[in-house]
Amino acid sequence: MNKSTLWTILGVIVAVIIAWVLVDVLFSVLWFIGKLVIVAIVAAIVFFIIRGAFSRRE
Question: Does the pLDDT of residue 29 top 90, yes or no?
Answer without folding.
Answer: yes
